[in-house]
Queue: 2 jobs
Job 1
Amino acid sequence: MNPKKELVIGLAGYGVVGTGFARALHEGRELIRRRTGRDIVIKTVAVKDKNEKFAYPLPEGATLTTSLDDLVNDPAIDVVIELIGGIQVARGLISKALSAGKHVVTANKALLAEDGKELFRIAGEKNLHLGYEASVCGGIPVVQAMSEGLAGNEILSLYGILNGTSNYILSEMSAKGMPFADALKDAQALGFAEADPTLDIEGFDAAHNLVLLIRLAWGVEYPFKNLPVQGISAVRPEDIEFARELGYSIKLIGQARMQDGRLSAGVFPALVHRKLLLSKVVGSYNAVWVKGNAVGSIFLHGRGAGDTPTGSAVLADILSIARDARPNNTGFLEQVPPLADVLDPEEGESSYYFRLMVEDKPGVLRDVAGAMAEYGISIAQAIQKGNDPDVVPLVFMTHEAKAKDVVKAVAHMRASHLLREEPVCYRVLHRG
Amino acid sequence: MNPKKELVIGLAGYGVVGTGFARALHEGRELIRRRTGRDIVIKTVAVKDKNEKFAYPLPEGATLTTSLDDLVNDPAIDVVIELIGGIQVARGLISKALSAGKHVVTANKALLAEDGKELFRIAGEKNLHLGYEASVCGGIPVVQAMSEGLAGNEILSLYGILNGTSNYILSEMSAKGMPFADALKDAQALGFAEADPTLDIEGFDAAHNLVLLIRLAWGVEYPFKNLPVQGISAVRPEDIEFARELGYSIKLIGQARMQDGRLSAGVFPALVHRKLLLSKVVGSYNAVWVKGNAVGSIFLHGRGAGDTPTGSAVLADILSIARDARPNNTGFLEQVPPLADVLDPEEGESSYYFRLMVEDKPGVLRDVAGAMAEYGISIAQAIQKGNDPDVVPLVFMTHEAKAKDVVKAVAHMRASHLLREEPVCYRVLHRG
C-alpha cells in the first residue's frame, strides 16, 4: 500500500458526471477508507465558468479554477479526472497529465475510441493508470470484466445495447406504438436525449462503446471511421409491431463477432428474439452480452449514463489507483493494439427481417420468394396482411444470408417493380 | 511485471472443474501470452486415484501424484489451485500452501463460506492471493465486480439466483407443469443434479454463495449457520401456476438487503415479478442483481457451475497472479471482517404470496382478510377459484408486512379452523 495517506484528485469538469462523482465520493468516504485505508481528496476543480450553478456543492476544501494547467502543474495532484468531453482540449489535458506523471481517469469514450492510441502509449510507457471504466457503458463494470474477469476467454461474440437514449426511445415506441419523432420529443423533454440528439440516435455513441469493447475483447484496433453504423431514426412503429408478432423486439445493437477468423462488427437496429435477455432491456439501460469459449454466455446490465452511475465507474478506477494496483489499461501487454482483421461487411452473415410494400395481388409472395431464392436466400417465416385495397405489407424473415446477397436480392426486386416503397430490412438476433 | 517468465501451477483435483480449467488454459495459451507475457504451466496434478479416467488429457509435461504435499513442498510451484472440495483436507492444503508462501486459487465455496476466516487472515498477513472468483456463481465475474468495479458503492440490496440446479428444476416445473420430484429426476438423469441433491435443492449451496457475497458487499461476516435457509423441495406446480397468473415466476432467491441499518438476509423460494430480469433467468444459469447507492441497479448473468465456466473463473484469478496484481482478497483492508449487524428475521419486511386451502363457502375471503388485518397485513390482490365442491384454493398477495406479523396471522387462521391444509406462503420480489 502506498504510504501516502491521501490520494489527491484534480477534477476537470463539474457537470453531470463530475457532480455525480463528487456525490458518490462523498457518500462513499467511510467505505473507501475501509476498502483502501486512504482518504480521497478533490483538491482542485477546473471548470469553464466559475459562476455557473452546479448541481452538487463543490467538494469541501476544493479550489475552483478555470485553468486546466492548474491540475497538470500541481505536484500535489496524483490523479487527473477528465470529464470535460470533446476531443482536442481533453486530449491535450490527458496527454499533459500523463507526461507529468499523473494517473488519469476519463469518461471520454469519443476521444478514446476515435483517437486514444497515443494516450494509451504514453500511459503504458510511464506505467500509469489511464482508467476509462466510465467511458464504456457507464456504471456497468465491463472494462474490468473484459480485461480481467473474462480475460482468459477467446471471445466469440459480443452483442450490446450500448446507448441508453436510443433504447429509451425504442422502448417508448414499442410500449406506446408512437412514431420515432414523438418518442424523441418526449425523451428530450424528460432529459433522456440532448437538444442535438445525433450522437445517440444515429448510433455514434454506441459505436464509440463498441470500438472500445472490441479493443478490450480482442486487443485489436477497429478504426472508428470504418465501422458500419446505422441509427434508429428510420425505425417505424409498424416494424416494431410486426417484429413483436414474430416474437422479437427491435433494439439498437452493437455487434462484434468472429466469423471465419475475422471480425464482423457494426451498429444497427436489429430484431432480438424474446427469449434473449437482450430483448428485455428496456428504458435507458445498457447491456452487454458476451460469449467466451470457456465461460459460455455472460450478460451484464446496468445504467449506461447518468450522474452517479457514471460517477460510480470513475470511483472504481480511483479505488484501483488508491489501492496502488498495477495499471492494466488495455488488458494486453501491447498498449498500441494491431489493426483488426476485419471481415468485409458484404461477407457478414445474418438472418434478416424484411418488410416490403407490395401490390395486393396473387403470386406476390411467390415472386418475392423467387427473387430471394435466386441469390440463395431462403425464407423462414412470413406474414402477409391485406388491409389496404392497393398496397400491403409483406413481412418475412430469412435464414442466414450474406449481406452482399441481400443487397443483390433487393436490387433485383427493385428492378422488377414488385416494390411500391423502399424495402425495410433489419438483421435478426436469434436465441441460439 | 514479474521477471519470471513462467507461472507454475500445482493443481489439486482433476474432476469437472480441474479438467475444465486445464482445457481453458490450453485453449487460451496464446491469448494469455498476449495478456500477461507469461506462460502458465501446470507442473503437478494431485488426484486421489492415478488410474482414474479423466475427462480431459493431463496437461503436457505434468506429473501425476496422489500426495497433496507434493504441491506444497515443491519450491518451483507458485500457485496451488484447490479443486478437491470438502472441508478438512482442502483447508489443510490451502493453509499449508499459504504458509509455504504460495498463492492459492480455490473453487471451494463451502469451505470459504463456513470456515474461511483463518485462511483469509494468513493470506492477508503474507500478502498472498487467495483467489475465489470460481467459488461464487461459477463463471460470473462477480467477486471482482463486488470488490473492485462496484467497490465505491454502499450496497443497498442484493438478490440472486445462486444455484443452477434448483433454478433448472424450477424452470422445468414451470415450463412443463411437472411436480418437483419428476423435475428432480430429470435433472439427475441429465447430470444437472447430483445423486444426493440436498446441497442444491435445500438451498445450502445458494447460502454459501450468499455468505460470500455478503462479505464482499459489506465487508462483514454473516455466520453461515445463522442464515435462514429454505429450499425448493416443497414448491408445488399449482403455486407456480398461480404465481404466473399474478405475473410472477417462482425462483430460489438469495437475498441480502439493508433494512433500518441492519442486514436482512436469507435463502428462500420467492415470487419474482415478470418485469424483473431475475424472473427471466431460466435453466441452470445464475444471476446476481445488486443495487448500489451510486450505480443504481446492476444485473449479472451467466453459468454458475460447469467445467469450463468455472475453469474460466479460476483462470481469471491465475491471470491476476500472472500479472503480479496486488492481492485484494476480501475487498477490504480488514482480512477478518466484523460480525454482521443482523436484523432479527422476525422484523424482516416483505410482500407475501399466500395459498390457503379453504372451504368453498361465502365469507371465507372476508374472514381471511380479517385475520390478516388484525395483524396489520393488507391484501393487495386475490384469486379465488371454485373447482372443487369442498376445498378450494384462496390465493392472495399482501402489501409489505413484517415476518412476525405473518407468523401470527397464520397461527390465528390455523386456530380459527379456516384452513383445510397447511398454508403455503412465499415472499414476493416486486419490480420496484
Job 2
Amino acid sequence: MKRIKIKQLFAEAKEQDVVICAWVRTNRAQAQFGFLNVNDGSTLNNLQVVYDSALKNFEAISKFRVGVSVLIKGKVVLTPEMKQPLEVHASEVEMLGDCPEDYPIQPKRHTREFLREMAHLRPRTNLFNAVFRIRSVAAMAIHAYFQERGYVYVHTPLITCADCEGSDQMFKITTLNMQNPPLNEDKTVDFSKDLFGKQSFITGSGQLHGETYAMAFGDIYTFGPTFRSENSNTQTHANEFWMIEPEMAFCDLEGLMDIEEEMLKYVIKYVMDNCPSEIDFCDQFVEKGLKDKLSNILSSSFTRISHHDIVDLLLKSDRKWEFKPSYEDDIAKEHEKFITEHFNGPVFITNWPKDIKAWYMKLNPDGKTVAAVDLVVPQAGELMGGSQREENLDVLLERMEQLGVEKDGVDWYLDTRRFGGCVHSGFGMGFERLIMYLTGVENIRDVIPFPRTPKNCKY
Amino acid sequence: MKRIKIKQLFAEAKEQDVVICAWVRTNRAQAQFGFLNVNDGSTLNNLQVVYDSALKNFEAISKFRVGVSVLIKGKVVLTPEMKQPLEVHASEVEMLGDCPEDYPIQPKRHTREFLREMAHLRPRTNLFNAVFRIRSVAAMAIHAYFQERGYVYVHTPLITCADCEGSDQMFKITTLNMQNPPLNEDKTVDFSKDLFGKQSFITGSGQLHGETYAMAFGDIYTFGPTFRSENSNTQTHANEFWMIEPEMAFCDLEGLMDIEEEMLKYVIKYVMDNCPSEIDFCDQFVEKGLKDKLSNILSSSFTRISHHDIVDLLLKSDRKWEFKPSYEDDIAKEHEKFITEHFNGPVFITNWPKDIKAWYMKLNPDGKTVAAVDLVVPQAGELMGGSQREENLDVLLERMEQLGVEKDGVDWYLDTRRFGGCVHSGFGMGFERLIMYLTGVENIRDVIPFPRTPKNCKY
C-alpha cells in the first residue's frame, strides 16, 4: 500500500485501503472508540479517522495529543449523509513523533499578533495554511501568465552598485570588518578592499536591468525579492518583499494597461480555480464578501482616466477632504477610496504630474505630465505602478539632470536608448500587496512567511 | 492590423498581412531590392524581410544599420523551397530607433569574455538569447513540476540573523554609517542601533526555514537567490546565485532520490519540448552531443550506490589518482568523472562519512555515516545535494554540540523536532549548475544575466 495524500483521497472519493501520514489536529476519545482529525498539509480540509478498541494500542491512541505526527492505515468509507464526504476507519495508528502538552498551536482561535511571534509554527493553523497556499498558487499564476505569452523570466541581480531608487533607501552590504574597516588616507572607508572593490548594496528594483533584457527578448518579467531599508512601522511596509516587474518593448501606455488588466484577472481566476477552499475560508473568516469582490473584478472593465480628470472629479464632489486634491500632487488614500467607489471597480489613473514621478518615465507632449499609470483597486488602493519609459536619449538626459540623477553609474542603462531604442513600457507590482488583496489579510506581516520589519529579524 | 510576434508568425506559417516590430540583425542591400534579417526576441530564429525600390524610402532602408529597431508592414510569403519556410515582403519599413556604427554587437562571432564586459547587450546575441531563454523555461519547469504535485512554494527570508551555513561565508548588511558607526562602551559596533537591532546578514540557504514549512504543508520548495561572500575566482563560483531547496515530510532517503530523479527528467524533457531551437543551437555551437546527453538521461535509470562502495570501486580500479580515494573523505572531481563513466549515467552516492557532512543530516545506525546523498551527473559533476534530516532531537543536539553549532539562534528550528517531528528529507540544487548542464556552457558567468564575482559588480 502506498501513502496517499489527503487532498487526493478526497479527490478520488472512493472506498479503498490507504496509508496516511499526517498531524493530529483534534482527538476525541470515548470509551470504545475515538475520532482523530488529521491534516497532512496537502489541503485545508482535515480527514476524520475513526479508531476503536479493537486496536491493540487503543489506550495509547486515545491519549495522542494535538500536534503529534501519525501514520494511519485503514479503509476509506464514504459518508454522503455526513458533513464530511468520507472518513477512514483505522486498522492501525502509529505515533511517529510526539508533541508535548505546551504545544502552542491548540485547536482554538489565536490572535494574529500571538502567531506572528511564532512564524515558524503559524502555517500549521488554518488561516496561515490558507494564506501561504494562496501565496504559492498566486506565484505560479504569475509565472504561468507570462510564460504562456512568451515572456522571458529574468533574474536581475540583488547585489548592485547602481540603483534607480537612490541609495539612501538601500541596505549596504560588506565583507569588511565593521569594527576596524580599512581606511583611505582621508580616513574614509576603503571600499576598494571590499569584495566587489567598491561600495555595494542590495537592490530595491530590477527595472533598469529588466529594460536591457526587454531590448533583447521583447517581453520579459522579473519576480524576486527587493529591499528597502526605511524605518517605518505600518501595516503595509516590510524591509524585504517580493516584486514582479514586467517590461515590454514596442508597448505604449495603452498596451501596458491592457496587460496589467489581463494579468490581474488571470491571476485572480487561477487562484479561485486552484484554491477554492482557501478562498472560501478567507471569505468566511478574514474578509466577508471577498469572493464577490474577486468575482466582480473578473467581470468588470477597468476605468482609464487621467490624473487631471480625477482631480476635477474630486474637486467637484461634495466631500470634505483631509488632503485637498491638487493637479500637482499625489492622490491620497481617501481619494483612492472615493475613486474606486465612484467607478465601482479598479481604476487606471494616467498621465501624472512629472514632478512627483520618476526620472525614467516618458514625458508627454504637454511637457508637464508623464505617461505613468497607477492601478487602484477597491479596498487595497494602489496595486501596480508603471509607465511608458522615456526612449528619447536627449529628453532622458535632461530629465536626469533636472532631478539630479547621476549618469555615471547607469551609462550601461542609457545604451538601451543609444542602440535601437524603441517605445517600451513596464510596471511593478508588490507581490505582498497582491496577496493581501487576494486574501483580505490587512497586515503585510501576515502574508510573508518570515517578515522583516524594523527591530524584527528573528528566525 | 495587429502586431504579430515572429515566433507566432512561424507557428502559423500562412499567407497573411502582418505588422512586425523587431531589430535588424543584418541588411543586404542591392540596387533594386534588399533583405533585412530581423529578430524581435520572441524566438532564436530571424525573419527575412524583402524590400524593394518601390518603397518610397528604399534608399534610407538600404542604409539601416545592424541594431536599428524597425516597424515592418507586409505580406507573409511561404517559401517551402528555401532554407527558411517563409519570408515577409514589405510594403512599409519604418525606423523606430537608430543605432550607430560603433554598436558592439555585430553579426560576427564575439568571444564570451568580450561579451561578459557588456552583460546588458549580450542577450542580443544568439548564444545568450538561447541560454537565457533556456534559463527562463527551466525555471518554469521547476515550478510546474512541484506545483503539479501539490508542493507549496515558500519565500524564505533573504535577510537573516541565523544561518546553518555559518556566518563567515555571509555578507553583512547594515543601515549604519560605516564611516562612523555607533559604538558600545567597549568600542565594538553597537548593532542595537542598526535597523533590525542586531547584526544581520544575507542568507546562504533557506533550508532551515523551509523545514519548518514542510512540517505544516508536507511538501514545500524554495526557489530564490542565495549569497556566498567567498573570494574565489573559478568557473563555477559566483557570489550571488539561485537555489531550489525542496523539503518533504514523511520522506526518507530512498523517497528523496525518487523525487530528485523524477524532477531532473521532468525539467530536461520540459526544456527540450519548449526550447527545441535553443537546445539545437547549444548542441551545435556550445557542446557537441548535448542533445544525446540529455536524451540519454531521460531513458536511463540512475544508479544508487553508497559512498563506501564507491570508494571500493575507485580503489579497485587501475587508475592512478591524484587524490587517493578514502572511506573518510570527499569524492574528488576525477573520481566523479570515473564514476559517471563507469555507470554511464547519473549516480546517486549515498551514506557519507558524517564528519564531512552537515550537522542536520540523519545519523545512520552505524554511527559513522549520515543519510546524505549527492547526485553526480556526466560532465557537470555534483548537481544536487541532499539528505534525510535528523528528526531525533537528542541526537541532533549532540551533533550540534560536537560540531560547535550555536543552539541559541536556531531554537525555533529545533521546534520542528519537538512538536510532531517526523522523518523528512530535502535537497538543494544550484540553479546555475542546472543551466550549465542543460546548455553545455562551462562558465557560471555566462548563465547569470548580471553575474556577481569578486571585484565584479558593474551594472
